[in-house]
UniProtKB/TrEMBL annotation:
Keywords: Glycoprotein, Membrane, Signal, Transmembrane, Transmembrane helix. Gene3D superfamilies: Immunoglobulins. InterPro entries: CD2/SLAM_rcpt, Ig-like_dom_sf, Ig-like_fold. This is Ig-like domain-containing protein. It comes from the Eukaryota. GO terms for cellular component: membrane. The chain crosses the membrane at residues 233-253. It is found in: Membrane. It comes from Aldrovandia affinis.
């Protein structure tokens, strides 16, 4: 009898564990890729992500809820009958959760801005309540590329990423010329290179609040900024030759006249 009770308890315990794991996996899968907007603050999200504007009715509270963006009523719904009206610009992008929260799917750059949730309790004579949400949508940055402009005395490096908004750039050195330390902030930088035997390699990182990508390294040995020692005499010799020819022409001109 005791063994049977122990088996029954073990079976119940295993069922409870399995149910907990099932719920956990379901919830994790359900909320993956969903950002929960926080009232009164800015929420950063990626293009294509979903955003949840949280709301919860209390008990049998009967309310009307409106999500407003730039004076446009995105969606309005009545909790008693679970009915809602959706703006045509947001068709197939808005879902209403069981608790009254509003989910916007596949957000785009144009969705950035200030949102209001207007709540009106139909059983109360108080004025409607408003919650403010600021949404900032970012496009993920692509892997940046470095271009080098070889000049007489220095090298101009430029870093660019073809995709992403509000991108910032930083540069790092790589061994043996450096120790992975950040040496410069900005999209461009001027380098006065060391001799070829001590050349330094650089990488550029592009990032914004939702993504980060690093370029392939570039070795400054691609540029040769040293000029031959005798090269500085070439302009002087050309000038002297020109003066000599002019002098001869003047000499013969005067002699003929």
């Amino acid at each position: 009898m005791n063994n049977q009770n122990e088996r029954l308890e073990r079976s119940r315990w295993l069922c409870a564990v399995n149910m907990f794991l099932h719920i956990l996996v379901y919830q994790c899968g359900r909320t993956e890729g969903i950002a929960v907007a926080a009232a009164g603050s800015t929420t950063n999200v990626k293009v294509g992500q979903s955003v949840l504007f949280p709301f919860s009715t209390e008990g049998n509270q009967i309310v009307t809820i409106e999500l407003i963006f730039n004076s446009i009523i995105v969606v309005s719904w009545f909790s008693k009958h679970k009915l809602h009206e959706l703006h045509t610009l947001y068709e197939h992008r808005i879902d209403i959760e069981e608790d009254g929260s509003i989910r916007m799917n596949n957000v785009q750059l144009s969705d950035s801005g200030l949102y209001h949730i207007k709540t009106h309790d139909m059983s109360d004579l108080k004025p409607p309540m408003y919650s403010r949400f600021h949404l900032q949508v970012f496009e993920c940055v692509s892997k940046p590329n470095i271009t080098a402009e070889c000049r007489r005395n220095n090298i101009s490096l430029s870093c660019s990423s073809i995709r992403g908004n509000e991108v910032t750039y930083s540069w790092k050195t790589l061994p043996p010329g450096g120790n992975d330390s950040c040496v410069h902030l900005g999209q461009t930088m001027e380098i006065y290179p060391l001799p070829p035997s001590e050349s330094t390699t650089y990488t550029c990182t592009a990032q914004n609040p939702v993504s980060r990508a690093t370029s392939d390294p570039i070795d400054l040995g691609v540029c040769s900024t040293q000029q031959p020692r005798d090269g500085r005499w070439v302009p002087a010799l050309c000038g002297l030759s020109a003066l000599f020819l002019i002098g001869l022409l003047i000499f013969f001109y005067k002699r003929n006249h």
